[in-house]
Amino acid sequence: VSYMVGKDRIIFATKEDHETPSSAELVADDPDDPYEEQGLILPNGDINWNCPCLGGMASGPCGEQFKSAFSCFHYSTEEIKGSDCVDQFRAMQECMQKYPDLYPQEDENEEKEKTSKDLEATPMEASAAKEETGSS
């Protein structure tokens, strides 16, 4: 049994589901990729740009800007880490804004409008409910 809640799908597993052996097949990792299982930071302290945890950010159209900003932050020795990287992060942000489909931005104005519309709707529903109960 499953149903959608917003963007998430909720799936309920039965006792039988847990007792049935999985039919999922594990695909062998590429033995030629030495970085696949290293994590974000390699043992020598370098950044692993092939880490799946980066979600492709290092290879997209803004990959160079991302690498520049992330490298700057990673190697920053400032008191407030990364405070010397403002220009790199600004360049990355400007690049990402050119590709809204690839890099969705949380639009603060849109969120505020949605919240205010929700708040406007609530008192109207509440007052309509009072009128109905008052008329009986």
Automatic annotation (TrEMBL):
Q: Which InterPro entries match?
A: CHCH (IPR010625), CHCHD4 (IPR039289)
Please give the biological process terms from Gene Ontology that the record holds: mitochondrial respiratory chain complex assembly; protein import into mitochondrial intermembrane space
Record's compositionally biased regions (Basic and acidic residues): 111-120
**Keyword Protein transport belongs to the record:** yes
User: Start and end of every CHCH domain?
Assistant: 62-98
Query: Main subcellular localization, coarse class?
Result: mitochondrion
Q: Does the keyword Mitochondrion apply?
A: yes
Task: From the UniProt entry, list the residue stretches annotated as the region Disordered.
Answer: 101-136
State the source organism's domain of life. Answer: Eukaryota
| Regions annotated as coiled coil | none
Listed GO CC annotations: mitochondrial intermembrane space
Tell me where it resides. Mitochondrion intermembrane space
Keywords of this entry: Disulfide bond, Mitochondrion, Oxidoreductase, Protein transport, Redox-active center, Translocation, Transport
Q: Which Gene Ontology MF annotations are present?
A: protein-disulfide reductase activity
PANTHER family assigned = COILED-COIL-HELIX-COILED-COIL-HELIX DOMAIN CONTAINING 4 (PTHR21622)
Q: What is this protein called?
A: Mitochondrial intermembrane space import and assembly protein 40
UniProt source species? Aptenodytes patagonicus
Lineage here is: Eukaryota, Metazoa, Chordata, Craniata, Vertebrata
Annotated gene:
CHCHD4
